[in-house]
Design goal:
This protein is an alpha+beta fold. The chain has a single domain, classed as Endonuclease, Chain A (3-Layer(aba) Sandwich). It contains nine helices and four strands, in the order ααααβββαβαααα. The termini are close together.
Length: 210
Amino acid sequence: MSVMSAREVIESGWQPGRLANVSEFIRMIERPTNDWERFDGLRGFYSRLNTDEWTPYPVDWMKVFTPIEKAVWGDMRYAAVFMWPQFPVGRYFLDFADPNRRIAVECDGKEWHDRERDMERDAELRELGWTVYRVPGSSCMRTVEIDWSEAANEAELTRWLLETSEGLIRSIAVYYYGRQCLGISREDAVWALKRHASRAAPFIDDGDTN
């Protein structure tokens, strides 16, 4: 898989603002006076951060996330999936992104997403080499109980993989990060990722991604 430096990804769409102090960028993200200030803060923050090596970072994202983003962030932390929130790529900000693997997860709350615009956006991201996974807001908050102590019921496993953000994130963990997740094979992950991926920025199984 071809890899672009995280800094190259950011700078390809960033026009530097007047402020260059990281603590001020954090203030602009957590307590912006308007959306444009937050966008400038995000671009500035990521341009100064070494995103090529995922480490804990100083932004209090709980002040920034929507409820469905908080749920997905919890799924990611539990599955050890290392993605950056509100990551700038070109003229867009992705809900969660891994710039090295060029994969993104978008949480589609009803209020903020328009299907036609999303497809146009995803097509542009695909041109930049990205794969985009979309999860409806209802799936971010849904849980499906599975007894992992024994062989999972096939119908329950299918529903969990397709109808919950947890199922998507665990599939990402298995396929892209080589994690061992109880009850999920690589074949299960590939099957789920094909169905969660945007038609405009689809999943392509290119073998070893780790």
